Amino acid sequence: MQNLQEFLLTTKGNEYIIAVLFLLTFILFWRLLSVTPYRPVRESIARVARAVKGIFSHPTHTWAEVVQPNLVNVGMDRFTSSVFGTIQEIQVPKEGNRIYQGGKAWRIKRGQRELVQASPVSGRVVEINKEFIQNPDLLNRKNPEKNWILKIEPTNLVREVRNLLSGEMLARWNQAVKEQLVSSLVPTDYPVLQEGGEIKPDLGDELTSQQWEKVAREFFNVR
Fold first, then answer.
1. What is the spatial distance between Cα 62 and Cα 164, in angstroms, rounded to a whole number?
2. Which residues pair with 110 in a beta bridge?
3. What is the distance between the alpha carbons of residues 11 and 36, in angstroms, rounded to a whole number?
4. Is 72:151 a contact under the CB 8 Å cutoff?
5. 153/139 Cα distance (integer angstroms)
6. Cis preceding-peptide flag for 187 (omega within 30 of 0)
7. Are strands 150-154 and 71-76 parallel, antiparallel or unpaired?
8. How confident is the model at residue 56, as a pLDDT?
9. Band of residue 163 on the pLDDT scale cut at 50, 70, 90
10. Computed from CA positions of residues 125, 69, 57, 132, in that sequence, does the dihedral angle turn out positive or negative?
11. pTM as predicted
12. What is the mean pLDDT of residues 14-22?
C-alpha cells in the first residue's frame, strides 16, 4: 500500500511539473507572437513620401533634393562653385556604388587645387550627370543649385534629413556663411560680393593659393 501511495504522489508531482512547464512554454510563445514584426532597414516608400519633401543641405555645401520617395538628386551649392573657381575635372563614383552620408560624394579639381565634398545622404548611385563629367566647367556656368550631379536611391532618408539644413534655418545659415566669407577675405584687391549682395560667381579664380587654403579650412573643414 505504501508503495502505491508513493507511486501516486510521484505521478501527481510529475504531472504538476509538466503542467507548469507547458504553461511557461505557452506564455513564452505568446510573447514571441506579440513582438512587433521585424522592419527592414530600407524605409517604406509611403513613410518617406509623408515625412520628407524639398531640398536639404549638408554643412559641406552639398544638397539633396527629394524628387520621388525613392529618388534623390544630389549636387553642390552655389557657394562651392563660386569660391572654388573654374572646375576642370570632377571625379564621381560609378553607377551602382554605395555612398554614405558624410562620406565622399565626388572630388573636383582645378590645377593643384582640389576639394572632396561629402554626400548629404546614404544610398546607391543610380545615375550620373554625364554632361557635367564631360564638361565640368558647366557646373560654374549653370545654376549649381538646380543641376544635379548624382541621382541616389536613398536607404535611410527620414533619419538622415534630421542632420541636414532646410527652410528658414538653411536661409539663415547661407547668410551667415556669406558674411563670414566677406570677413575672412577682407581686405582684398577685388570685391567679394557682386552688385546685389551675392558672392561673385567667379570669385575662386581670383583667390590666391593661401586664400583658397584658408577658405577650404574654414568652410569645408579641410585639414
1. 10
2. 113
3. 40
4. yes
5. 22
6. yes
7. antiparallel
8. 95
9. very high
10. positive
11. 0.75
12. 45
What type of residue is 75? G
User: Taking a C-beta distance cutoff of 8 angstroms, is the pair 79, 104 a contact?
Assistant: no
CA distance 100 to 121: 6
110 grid coordinates: 582645378
pLDDT: which is higher, 53 or 129:
129
- pLDDT beyond 80 at 15: no
92 with 149: CB under 8 angstroms?
yes
* Sheet arrangement for strand 54-58: 54-58, 62-68, 71-76, 150-154, 123-128, 98-99
pLDDT of residue 27: 37
Cα distance between the two ends of the chain? 93
- pLDDT the model gives residue 13: 47
Please report how the helices 209-220 and 167-185 are oriented relative to each other, as an axis angle in degrees rounded to 10. Answer: 150
**Of 110, 84, 96, 69, which is closest to residue 212 (Cα–Cα)?**
84
Per residue in 19-76, pLDDT (tens digit) is 444 444 433 433 333 333 334 444 455 555 455 678 999 999 999 999 988 999 999 9
Alpha carbon distance 103, 60 (integer Å)? 11
Q: What percent of the chain has pLDDT over 90?
A: 61
What's the sign of the alpha-carbon dihedral 142, 148, 150, 151?
negative
Q: Does domain 51-223 have CATH number 2.40.50.100?
A: yes
